[in-house]
Design a protein that fits this description.
alpha+beta, 11 helices, about 350 residues, 8-stranded mixed β-sheet
């Protein structure tokens, strides 16, 4: 009967619609974009270094390219170049090097070193407290420190907790404490700083859900990770010029972590890349430029720009690896260590990856 035939066709079309919708919803759940994750501004060193920028202003963070979970939830074909969303990071890293760091090496920086010398002192004037304890390095740094030419630490090292826990005054009057946190281990004998935790004043204030345009008015004068690290480094050593290694213990920033996972997949075919299979890049590679421009690499830019007179000319190389120990039930611990090689010296962590 024509009516029954039409009914069957309609029923079949409806069934096909529901099956398609089910498959699409499953795909969307498995491949949802990282844009759903909360933003993280862990080092706050994201001032635009474009030609139009005159001084570091703590301008609003740029929007970095994002990749979906599909880049690291299943094995993908090995690629030798980064995907299109990360071209902005490659360009940003190149820009920071060409317009920020290199001119500083030549004594032509447009970004003067900040002066935080106040009545009570830089930390106190900006509402920071500093506490110290002796704490051992995490196990996954052991091999890395053995590869350094400097003396590896024996026993616990100085762990310094910098908390923006006090109310303060800035150019806009009295302000509430931001609860920002910068925690790091300072190891002068190894010429190294290991950053454990980093939540900037800008990030903490942004979580208050106030008007975005008011955020810069509510942060202390001394607010960048790079500034607090250098100030503390100078107090920890008689030879600040010896600084060479900047390490990030566990990268949590969604953009930076996704970038590193993509590089792992591209070069190793998996995200499980232990120290023995580590990847090292210089700034001639797209990967090195992208890592230089990502949120966890920008603090290195400012350390080199602001303190070029002390540090001298350096050749940055970055090594990335996954420090999570699967045998001990640990998850991913994505690590980054910058080797700021003094002019005329060799890198510490092996040959750089070819482009």
């Amino acid at each position: 009967m024509p009516g029954n035939h039409l009914y069957c066709r309609s029923l079949g079309a409806l069934l096909l619609f529901f099956v398609t919708a089910l498959l699409l919803s499953k795909f969307a759940f498995e491949h949802q974009d990282l844009v759903d994750l909360p933003p993280s501004d862990v080092d706050n060193d994201t001032t635009d270094l474009s030609i139009d920028s005159a001084v570091p202003s703590g301008s609003q963070n740029p929007t970095f390219g994002r990749v979906s979970h599909r880049h690291y939830h299943h094995e993908a074909p090995i690629k030798r170049t980064l995907s299109e969303p990360y071209q902005c990071l490659i360009e940003k890293g190149q820009q920071y090097w060409e317009t920020g760091v290199k001119p500083a090496f030549d004594g032509q920086s447009r970004f003067p070193t900040p002066n935080f010398r106040g009545v009570a002192g830089p930390l106190q004037d900006s509402g920071w407290t500093s506490n110290v304890e002796l704490k051992p390095l995490r196990n996954f740094w052991t091999d890395a420190f053995k590869a350094m030419p400097a003396k590896a630490p024996k026993g616990p090292v100085r762990q310094i907790y910098l908390d923006q826990s006090q109310d303060f005054e800035n150019d806009h009057g009295p302000q509430e404490a931001t609860s920002a946190q910068y925690y790091a281990q300072f190891i002068p004998q190894s010429a190294a700083i290991v950053v454990n935790l980093s939540f900037s004043p800008r990030y903490k204030v942004s979580r208050r859900r106030g008007p975005p345009e008011e955020i810069p008015n509510q942060i202390p004068r001394m607010n960048r990770l790079s500034d607090l690290l250098w100030y503390t480094w100078e107090s920890e050593t008689e030879h600040p010029e010896s600084f060479r290694y900047y390490a990030v213990e566990e990268i949590l920033t969604p953009d930076a972590k996704a970038l590193i996972f993509e590089i792992f997949r591209s070069r190793r075919g998996t995200t499980k890349v232990p120290w023995k299979k580590r990847l090292t890049f210089d700034l001639t590679s797209d990967e090195g430029k992208a890592l230089f421009g990502c949120p966890n690499g920008i603090a290195v830019n400012w350390l080199l720009i602001h303190h070029a007179k002390v540090l001298g000319r350096r050749e940055p190389r970055v090594t990335i690896f996954n420090g999570g120990n699967k045998d001990q039930g640990e998850g991913d611990k994505v690590c980054m260590i910058w080797d700021l090689i003094p002019s005329g010296q060799k890198g510490s962590f092996g040959a750089v990856e070819k482009g």
